Amino acid sequence: MAIVFKKTSVLTDTIMHYCPGCGHGIVHRLVAEALEELNLQDKAVGVAPVGCAVFAYRYFNVDMQEAAHGRAPAVATGIKRVLGPESCVFTYQGDGDLASIGAAEIVHAAHRGEKITVIFINNAIYGMTGGQMAPTTLVGQRTTTSPYGRDMEHCGSPIRMSEMLATIDGSAFIERVALNSTANIQRAKKAIRKAFETQMAGKGFSMVEVLSTCPTNWGKSAVESMDWLESSMIPYYPLGVKKEV
Amino acid sequence: MAKQLMKGCEAIAEAAIQAGCRFFFGYPITPQNDIPEYMSARMPKVGGCFLQAESEVAAINMVYGAAGAGARVMTSSSSPGISLKQEGISYIAGAELPCVIVNMMRGGPGLGSIQASQGDYFQSTKGGGHGDYHLVVYAPASVQEAIDLMQTAFDVADKYRMPVLILADGIIGQMMEPVEIKQGNASEPVKKDWATVGWSEKDFTRPRAVVNSLYIEVEELEELTGRLQARYAKIAEEETRVELYNTEDAEFMLCAYGTVARICKTAIAQLKKQGIKAGLVRPITLWPFPYKAVHDAIAAPSVKKALCVEMSAGQMVEDVRLAINGEKEIELLGHSGSRVPTAEEIAQRIIQMRGA
User: Fold this and answer.
1) Cβ of B213 and A66 within 8 Å?
2) What is the pLDDT of residues B103-123, one digit of tens each?
3) Does the beta-carbon distance from A54 to B214 stay under 8 Å?
């Protein structure tokens, strides 16, 4: 019988621990497929974050390091500086990890034009710790630490990391994508490929921000979550290429 | 090679390069800036990489990444900066990665002072970061000893897959002394088949590498900590270092490390002129602490009294008292606030103890 579809070899067979309707599984597959298509598996070293994707090192079938909360870009810097331009070093980080505790590390990795690729999952909430407010939580959004809805007067408005990092000279490719439709998932895959290609061409820092869902902590069904992503997140976080050199 | 006059920080940096270190990640802080400055000039000349990080936090995590990718790597800082590195040091210990960290101690707590101090003994030997781990801690008492210990530090780090700390103070870092750095003395590279350098299933020579300190199952974490503790027991047996100075027939035993130990030697010479026999037991490894050697030196029948001298309010003295376990009373001469004890002051204290 002819094989018409095969799971990418860049993912292990380990069963993922993610909740139903969570976007991590989709993004893991996109990243792994991109690495396979670009023939980068044996050059890749991934850095897992602290957050829901903390076990990413179990799922990506490449050499992996697990970083402290927020420090993945610094760890990736150390790896890339040792292994050099032939290697493909990527981090996989959530919004609490990247935009809050790791804000300094991500800004300066971009600022140095560090030739790494960052996969940034923005689901507007802390998932692993049980649904607390993230820097990307929308105004009015209820979380376990903003039970009356995020109040802009009290704790500011959500941070747009892609736009901010795009202002930095060292950034070579930055795009925001979303998982709310098949077409957008295809665009996400293309962006991830482009980010890896940017790194391998030695152009500088590359990042793909993926707007993703967290049904468990949003208190929504999987379908409602996709709708909310489209109706609430995309208007605040516009999709598209923010930087390309 | 002939001796040359070198500043402590620069000599330590050159010694690291001669020991095969090719990656340095750091952040400016006084009184150790001469190390990153020297590295920034030297590393590109030897095909290495110096990178000034955005913070001490980032620097130690760059060390984590580089060590995980198999490199000989180091960082340096001074007390407040070392506090910031503690998170990363704990992760490095948990992930069983080799690296060398230099702390040129300054006064604390808080911003403290920029002068020399020994206030980080507790932090260095009793944990520092969170969790059940230790660092091997070397305390050089001269620039030459600091140089020689750099090679040892990298070798021990690789041998046991763990972070090693050189705990010096601002005086060692800023002082110039005639020294000899052995050229091209780097030991053979250790095989690191656990390092993340790129892998695919086509390559069956090793399993996929994962550098990690997360063990979510109780049994798995206990397996790690058990492995670490077994390693620490072996290190205590094989790597403990101590210097005994004039201990034979001494009536008074001093115990000190680093710069203070040198001042003690001057005090011992002054006391000798007055016919008072004093000796010194100097831990070179602060962890593992040389409990037995310190015990034996102080418990010797000739010793009437013992004095621990420190540039702190009394930190190592706790280990000295643990070593002697109540057999003899240990007095303390401790200065915190970066004041350096003088030889005269130490000699005077021994004379007082003699009269008491």
Assistant:
1) yes
2) 999 999 999 999 999 999 999
3) yes
